[in-house]
Amino acid sequence: MEPMTTDTSDPQPLFKSAPSRAIKEINRRRTFAIISHPDAGKTTLTEKLLLFGGAIKEAGAVKSRKTERKATSDFLSIEQERGISVSSSVMKFNYKDYEINLLDTPGHRDFSEDTYRVLTAVDCAVMIIDSAKGVEPQTRKLMEVCRMRNTPIITFINKLDREGMDPLSLFEDIEEKLQIECTPITWPIGMGKRFKGVYHLSRQELGLFSAGYTPKSGDGIVITDLEDRELDRHLGSQARELRDDIELIQGAADPFDMDEYLKGSQTPVFFGSAINNFGVREMLDSFVEIAPAPGIRRTSTREVSPEEPAFSGFTFKIQANMDPAHRDRIAFFRICSGKFTRGMKVRHHRINKDVILSNATIFMARERSNIDEAWPGDIIGIHNHGTIKIGDTFTEKEPLKFIGIPSFAPEHFRRVILRNPMKTKALQKGLMQLAEEGTIQVFRPRINNDYILGAVGVLQFDVTMARLGAEYGVEATHETVDLSVARWITCHDKDRFKEFLGKNEASVATDSEGCTAFLTTSEYQLGFAVEAWPGIEFHKTREYN
Ligand code: G4P
pTM to 2 decimals? Predict the structure, then answer.
């Protein structure tokens, strides 16, 4: 899709020497998400990270929220859940001198397009792999999204206290399925009942595992020479295995390379057991050191440095709030440059209006009410009544449009069935607004008047139906339709495009922003079309206008 062009006659000069306060605040921020397949241990790890950061006081807080979420089955609970998920959408905690924003990536039955889009707002990610299962489908999908921006990835291989795949096979699995090179930072000693702990390769430190005991800094035993008898004393017969393993990996695995990691082509790997809080601190210590601070972001006209003094940022998620009658929304907004202060005036460029950010929420696990400023990398929640949509850019003045916060090709499709034909207008209005919020995607086929809904996660359909009823008074249901693949299509040659549309009319539809899409039954059919129609471009994502 062509990027939107905007007036650049008065570009903001790059801020050459940001005040030291700004530099300090930017450099100590880490904004990340966890990517994993359900049940790999995301909730457990999140909880341990929050405990380390002092953001929660006791284990169980995050877990119980998850249980509530899992139990969600009807609209009322979806609505109630929103209250919960707003507060858990961004979890902020401090570790050492770092200020960390952990963005939630809903993964179970609430997996949705938002899960993908959250990844466009982070600077790095932690990937959890279940040691018994290796790379699983959802991780693959999320990794594909990380690839779009070459997001740096740290890997945590979890559940070493259980029998799993051997570490080298896990490396092979990750390298083959995710096309990213693995470099071990820690190395496990045994697994399951024989799990003894990990050896930290660069620190040359042995961390001994004891179920239920949370290791403290200073617990590690420094063993610089692996032939040291001390190793045998701690590990018994498994000392030999560790020596052999390390000899093997030192020959086979490339050492950690910061540039390769930052480019997203190498991932440092940690082993541990989240539930036992083992290996988590090692990972977190390295994470704060090597995860990048907020960096440069692309707009349709220029790049924006976080150190620029003028405030700017974009919306990547919209969440309807508890009171549907008031169309009360929270827009999740990532700050890209400058400093946010409560009450500041910014320009909402899409609707060409100034907006006062007086009631923005700053997501803090603690001291929420005392915080009046926020910096690049931070996420603020802006209350609105449906005036903000995904991808909207706010700046102090300059008309910018951040790009790379797209809509993702849906993977599930349904046809809307309207119960009361008198409500056609309300249905149309509701669907258009829900599409703007990223709740659902809406397609109108060329050959009929159907409304075809597209989603990344099937819960999106139920949320859409429930909200159509509650907010627009539209009683509708949905039925399955024989579609499973969508691609947005463009072509530089107008005549060729016309020819394609004419010959494929039954598979062509227009989405809520007027973009043309090709909808078909299988990847095979898509491949067939791609081959048959050189010159037609098939896109898996599309930028919001
Ligand atoms: P998720 O958010 O990625 O879906 O995973 P979650 O943390 O909920 O973990 C999924 C299951 O794996 C949970 O068990 C959890 O206790 C378990 N788990 C997490 N980390 C480890 C680990 O290091 N070792 C072992 N052995 N298990 C781990 P559950 O039975 O589904 O839930 P629960 O009854 O334990 O709460």
Answer: 0.91
